[in-house]
Each structure stands twice: as C-alpha cells, then as structure tokens.
Automatic annotation (TrEMBL), chain A:
GO MF annotation terms: acyl-CoA dehydrogenase activity; flavin adenine dinucleotide binding
Lineage: superkingdom: Bacteria
Name this protein carries in UniProt: Acyl-CoA dehydrogenase
Pfam families to which the protein is assigned, alphabetical: Acyl-CoA_dh_1, Acyl-CoA_dh_N
Automatic annotation (TrEMBL), chain B:
Protein name according to UniProt: Acyl-CoA dehydrogenase
A Pfam short name: Acyl-CoA_dh_1
InterPro entries according to UniProt: Acyl-CoA_Oxase/DH_mid-dom, Acyl-CoA_Oxase/DH_mid-dom_sf, AcylCo_DH-like_C, AcylCo_DH/oxidase_C, AcylCoA_DH/ox_N, AcylCoA_DH/ox_N_sf, AcylCoA_DH/oxidase_NM_dom_sf, Mycobact_Acyl-CoA_DH
Keywords: FAD, Flavoprotein, Oxidoreductase
Organism annotation: Solimonas aquatica
Length: 348, 401
C-alpha cells in the first residue's frame, strides 16, 4: 500500500471512528462526499486521487469496519461506469457524480429486458437491491443480456421505486419496476461488446466491494469481541482467560487474516483484468470467502458477548445483520460457490 | 535487467530443468512400493536437485545454489509444486532444521563438518519430543550429564520422523536444573551410530512407520558436538522450529492448489461431477485454498522485509492445517464407499495424493506436529490478539501439589 493511500486510509478510519457505528446516512454521506472519498479510484486527469482499485478496496474496507450507512459501493460503481464509458457528457457527469449527485447501481442481479420500438430502446423488468434509490437522480442499469448499459433518470413515468426494509440498519434498499422506460440516447454508456465488458467489470467491482466490506467488518467485529472478553469478568477473572474462548477468537483471527490476504492478492493480480472472465472469477472467489468469514465472525461475536449482544444498543447485531445481507448481495453465496466449481471443473 | 525479467528467467529455467529431470511416472513407481525403494528414490531425486542447486537455495552464498533472495527461493518452490515433483521428506530435517540450526548457531568447524555432508546425502532427524514432553517441550527429561570433555546421554525421544534412516540427530536434552525449565537445556549434534543408541520404528495409523523412538543408554557425546552454549538449548531449538515456516508453507500451499484437480478426478470417477452438493463444497473449498496460498505468500514477504510479528507464523500454519483437513475430507466424501477400501498409497507424494483416506490420516501431521492447532491457537490469542496468558499455578481439587 502506498504511503499516500496509507494516510488516506488512516484518516478515513479516524473519521468513521468519530462518527460511530450507529451513524446514519444523513451524517455519513455528506461527510464522505465533502472529504472526496468518491474520488479515490479516479485518475488525476479526471480530478481523482489516483489510488486505483487498491484505493477503492481500502475505502470499502474502512466503511465496512465502521458499518458506514452510506451507499458508497453503489456510488463508486456508477462513477466507474461513467469513467470507463465513451460518451459525450463523460466529464460533466463525472464531476456531478463525485459531488452532490448520487446514482444508484444495483447491488444484486437485475432482470431487465431491452426492446426496440422504432428508434427507441425500451427497458422493462425489475431491479433488486438499489441502495438509497430515493435520493438517486439516476439508476445505472444494464439489460439482462449485458448488451446495453445506461443511466436512467429516476423520476419518470414507467419507473417506480419501492422501499424494502432490510434487517441491516446500515442500508436502505429499494426495488425498481420498469415498464417500457425509454432510454435517453445521450445517457447510453455502452452497447454491444463494450457493454458486455463493462457489465463484467462492474460485477467484478461489486463482488470486490462486498469482499472488502466483509474484510473490514470481520476485523472490527473480532477486535470488538476480544476487547469485550478482556474487560468482562466472570468467575473472578476476565473471560479472555478462558481457553475455550481464546481458541475461538484465534480461529476467527486466522479466518479474517486469510480473507484479507486473499483479497489483497486478488486486487494486485487482477486490477487490469476485471472485465475478463478470469478477473470476474477471481473477484467472486475473494468475495465468496470474505463474506462467509464475515458471517461466521459476526455470528460468533454475538455468541461471545452473551446477553448484551442481543440488545439493540450494542453493535453486535449491526455487524451480524450487515454480514448476513452482504452474503446475499451481489452474486448470492450459494451460486458463487457453484460458479467457482463449474469454472474450475471446466478447466480441468 | 529489470527484477521481473530475472524472476521470469529463473522460473523458466527451473521449469525446464524439472521437465527434463523429473523422473517420469514417479508417482506410479512410488505407489505401493516399500520403504527401501522409497528411500532409494528419495536419494536419487535429492542428488539431482542438490547438483542443480535447487535443494539448497535457502543456504547462504558459497553453497550450491545458495544466497538467493527469498523471492527467488519462492519461485523455485512454486515450480517444484507446479511440476508435482516428489517431496523430499527424507531430507526435510537435514535441509531445513539441521542446516538452519547449524548455519545460525554452529561454530566454523561445525559448519565445515556437517553442511557438506548434508549435501552428500546425510540424513538427519529431530529428537525433541518425548513420551511425556510434547506440546510442553520444555519439560523434557532426557539427561545430558557433563563428564570431562563429554556429555553422557540417558533417556528417550519419540515421534522422530525418519529416524530409522537417519545418520544424525538434533538432540535437545537437559544438562542442568533450572526454573523456568527452558533454562537447563542443551542442544547436541549426535551421531546416531554412537554406542548406546537404539532406534525403533513406530507403526502409524496408515500401517506405515514414518517415525520412530530413539533410546539413549549412556551415550557419549564429545563436548564439541554441542551447539550453542550449555543451557542455551532452548534458544537454539527455536531456530530449528522456525526453519520450517515460511518457504515450507509456500511449497505446501502451492502443492495444495495444484492438487485441486485430484478432487475433480475423484468426482468424475464416482459419477459425481454434476452432483450439486459436491460442486458447492468444491466451490467453497477453492477460495480457501487460494487464501492459504495468499496467506503463505504474504507471510514470506513479511519475513523478507523483517515485518514478521509474533503469532503471524501461527496464523499461517493453523489456517493451512484446517484447510488441508477440509480438502482431504472432501476428497474422501467424494470417494464414498470406494475410499474405505485399502489401496496402495504413494510415498513422497505430498499431502493430497488422491488416496483420500491415507491423505486424511496424514493430514494430522499438520494439526499435531510442529505445534498442534491448539498450541497455535494459544499463540495467536496471546501474542497476536493479546489475550491474557494461562495462569501458571493450578491445582485440582482433592489433589496436592
Ligand atoms: C507425524 C508426526 C511427526 C513428528 N515428527 C517429529 C520429529 O521428527 N521430531 C520430534 O521431536 N517430534 C516430532 N513429532 C512430535 C510432535 O512435535 C508432537 O506430537 C507435538 O508437539 C504434540 O505433542 P504430543 O503428541 O505429546 O501431544 P500433547 O502435547 O500430549 O497434546 C495432546 C492434545 O492436547 C492438546 N494440548 C496440549 N497442550 C495444550 C494447551 N496448552 N492448550 C490446549 N491444548 C493443548 C494438543 O493440541 C493435543 O490436541 C511428530 C509428530 C507427528 C504427529
């Protein structure tokens, strides 16, 4: 990690630490926009901080650690899509989307059919898992066959949003229904083969952002648990003295560190290949491991806290709920495992 | 030349050397063979590797292939794993434990005496564990009594891998009283042909006898064969134990990665290639295997840059040991009933030979030997997570101490 990125990461950790684990979107989002965190991966030419994928992953990790209630992953996906598309308004959109304006990108698979009607392109279908979509000016959508990626203004006839309350208090998810929504040619980001590549790149990035969220969350949940066990006393001694509990923490530590090493390795190897099938597979692989580790750590964290872990005021449930949702976002864990095995078997 | 070019060139050089020299069909030859044949084959493979300088890239400059930066050593081990070459089990202790200990603590005379002999094929074994001193190694009782210019050894060692084939032994024994018990230990380089030494192989759960007991009955060791000062044995032993970390785990994790297709082969043989449950288990295992590789790599990099923290090595070993167990038990589940029948196994074939029940049994090597999983968990929780240490004093109710 570069010196510059190290400093950025430390300051992010500090800022989020001050905000606290229960801060809401109204507190978190304006702050991260103001601090320029949306610019982390962009090159200098586009006014960015030039930290690339490693930078984005470092920030996702910190936001995961701090349970940040802001649609950062989704916003970065839209910014990345605009950055990698060739279209007239690229520059002005980049400026808008890294400042006050927010574009929601789906954090799970969507099912949208593209239909041609004369000269018009119409989109119909459903989109799940759009974070904070009520605040979004646009949605970043792609057709089911990956052959078209476009920005779609949120407020227009034929497009409806419905809030879906998840258990995870740090995320506000929406579903969108589209009925013959016409695509504005000026907002088409990619079509045909270029769109397929972009879609794959975005899926890889989405998986990596979830992996990083999980890596950060798992580390934080484990630290919190170890600290608790050191202060909580039963039977006249700190709980941290009981080997049964120490060993569980040691196992969780090995799992978390392994997931982190795996993610870092993936980032360094595949940064330039995210739009290729092996890049997408590597991203899935890192994410599959990280999210299952996060869920395991969060489950154990609650157990090791005892009764206090079941109270809403304690952060245990926040980690647990976010971990459980992370596992289902992007490509659901069960499907990812089957995909990884399928690709491996096919190559044998 | 850019460093990347050197690395690539070395990789290609090792790859083509292996292609040329690796005995064809060695797996077949080593499957179902007896130990004598295995030992012969190990010697032959060792001589080839040693002559090419690939057996000792971790030795300092001046020795064959020595003085290579860790990054280059890593490439050699990756290629050896990739080529699926035999593991040099017979020489593991000689090349790592003995060599590293002698290099770090040995006198000039000791280095000149023992290191060339290792290259010529002398086999060493490690005599640390005793029937009553395993995880609690410092409590060992084998005595080394100083008499003039010699020590006289009495006692017993056990679980000593390949001791029945060894020429020499790294011996840790008690030469004085001390509290804590670590203080009274001394470390010896023992010739196993010395009078009073007897070695008895121990049958293992696989039916094989890869380790042995060693008995010492008034065995005399000249003082010059002590390594480190009298009473300094514990510190010397730490070097021995840490020598198998780092590169060894890189090799083992890489081998595990290259062995993944063996599970697929078993799935095919058993008609399970489209079995959803097994595929899913495989899909969950693959990321863990990759993570084990990434973890071992990162640990090695930390060692290279001197950033290793206490407990780091334990994380790698514990993670590897757990993933290995999952790996071989998935293989065994895929094998089903057919994996319950005894089949010939492959010697020196690594931890994932595809003879799954044998691989499964051998996976306990890594969860018990070299500091068990539980001991690693103690180290991780106490050193890395900084949880408190177990209190030293205890008493069972009803028992007098
Ligand atoms: C295949 C193999 C090869 C070996 N090769 C060699 C060799 O070449 N040379 C050599 O000297 N030794 C060798 N050993 C011995 C090895 O180092 C010991 O087996 C190991 O240190 C464990 O000691 P033990 O077997 O006495 O088990 P014990 O120490 O009796 O442990 C029994 C169980 O209790 C657990 N336990 C012990 N202490 C604690 C604790 N403080 N907290 C929690 N749990 C604990 C252990 O994890 C284990 O599960 C080998 C062992 C094996 C299996």
């Amino acid at each position: 990690m570069s010196q510059a990125l190290n400093e950025l990461r430390d300051s992010a950790r500090q800022v989020l630490g001050k905000l606290g684990l229960a801060a809401d979107e109204n507190q978190t989002w304006p702050l991260l926009v103001e601090l320029g965190w949306l610019l982390v991966a962009l090159p200098e030419d586009d006014g960015g901080l030039e930290q690339g994928l490693a930078g984005a992953v470092a920030f996702h990790t910190e936001l995961g650690r701090g349970l940040a209630a802001a649609p950062y992953a989704s916003a970065l996906l839209a910014i990345d899509a605009v950055q990698h598309a060739e279209f007239a308004q690229r520059q002005s959109f980049l400026e808008r989307f890294t400042a006050a304006e927010y574009v929601a990108a789906p954090m799970a698979a969507s099912h949208l059919d593209l239909r041609r009607d004369g000269s018009r392109l119409l989109l119909t279908g459903g989109v799940a898992a759009l974070e904070s979509a009520d605040r979004a000016t646009h949605l970043l959508l792609s057709s089911q066959d990956d052959r078209c990626v476009a920005l779609v203004p949120t407020r227009q006839p034929g497009l409806s949003l419905r809030a879906r309350n998840t258990w995870d208090p740090s995320r506000r998810l929406f579903e969108a229904q589209l009925q013959d929504v016409p695509l504005d040619p000026a907002l088409l980001l990619a079509q045909g083969e270029a769109a397929q590549l972009l879609c794959r790149r975005l899926r890889s990035l989405r998986e990596l952002s979830l992996a990083a969220d999980a890596v950060g969350g798992a580390a934080a949940a484990l630290t919190m648990t170890v600290e608790y066990l050191q202060t909580r006393r039963q039977f006249g001694r700190p709980l941290a003295l009981f080997q049964a509990l120490k060993h569980r923490c040691a196992d969780l530590c090995a799992l978390s560190v392994a997931a982190e090493a795996q993610l870092a390795d993936t980032v360094s190897r595949y940064e330039t290949r995210l739009a290729e099938p092996d890049g997408e597979l590597a991203a899935k692989t890192a994410r599959q491991l990280a999210c299952s580790v996060y869920a395991r750590v969060a489950e154990e964290a609650l157990q090791l806290h005892g009764g206090i872990g079941m109270t809403s005021e304690h952060a245990c449930h926040r980690f647990l709920k976010r971990a459980l949702l992370d596992e289902q976002l992007g490509l659901p864990a069960a499907q990812a495992a089957c995909d990884i095995a399928g690709a491996f078997i096919a190559a044998c | 030349m850019k460093p990347d070019n050197t690395a690539d060139a070395l990789r290609m050089e090792v790859r083509s050397w292996l292609h040329e020299h690796l005995p064809r069909q060695w797996r077949k030859a080593m499957t179902g063979c007896d130990q004598e044949a295995f030992v012969r084959a190990q010697r032959e493979w060792f001589y080839k590797l040693a002559a090419a300088g690939y057996a000792t890239p971790h030795w300092p400059q001046g020795w064959p292939g020595g003085g290579r930066p860790l990054a280059e050593q890593k490439i050699i081990y990756e290629e050896v794993a990739r080529a699926d070459a035999p593991r040099l089990i017979l020489y593991f202790v000689s090349l790592y434990h003995a060599a590293c200990t002698i290099l770090e603590w040995g006198t000039q005379e000791q280095k000149q005496l023992y290191l060339p002999r290792i290259l010529k094929g002398e086999v060493w074994c490690q005599g640390f564990s005793e029937p009553n001193a395993g995880s609690d190694l410092a409590s060992l009782k084998t005595r080394a009594e100083r008499k003039g210019d010699r020590y006289v050894i009495n006692g017993q060692k056990t679980w000593s891998t390949m001791a029945q084939y060894a020429d020499r032994c790294l011996l840790l024994a008690r030469s004085g009283k001390s509290d804590p018990p670590q203080g009274g230990l001394s470390y010896f380089l023992l010739d196993l042909r010395s009078k009073g030494v007897s070695v008895r192989p121990i049958a293992q759960i696989t039916g094989d006898d890869e380790f042995a007991e060693i008995f010492f009955d008034d065995v005399e060791i000249p003082v010059e064969n002590r390594i480190g000062a009298d009473g300094e044995g514990w510190a010397v032993a730490q070097s021995t134990l840490s020598s198998e970390r780092g590169l060894t785990l890189v090799e083992l994790t890489q081998r595990m990665r290259y062995a993944l297709p063996r599970i697929v082969a078993t799935m095919r043989e058993q008609g399970l290639i489209d079995d959803g449950a097994r595929r899913r288990e495989l899909g969950e295992l693959i990321p863990k295997v990759h993570a084990a590789c990434a973890l071992a790599d990162r640990y090695l990099l930390k060692r290279i840059s001197g950033e290793e923290a206490p407990g780091d090595a334990s994380v790698v070993k514990l993670y590897y040991s757990r993933v290995l167990r999952e790996f071989v038990s998935l293989g065994m589940r895929c094998g089903g009933l057919s994996a319950q029948f005894q089949e010939d196994f492959t010697r020196g074939g690594g931890q994932e030979t595809g003879n799954w029940p044998v691989d499964f049994m051998n996976s306990y090597n890594w969860s018990i030997a070299g500091g068990s999983d539980e001991v690693q968990r103690n180290i991780i929780s106490e050193r890395l997570l900084r949880m408190p240490r177990e209190p030293r004093n205890w008493q069972l109710s009803g028992e007098r101490s």
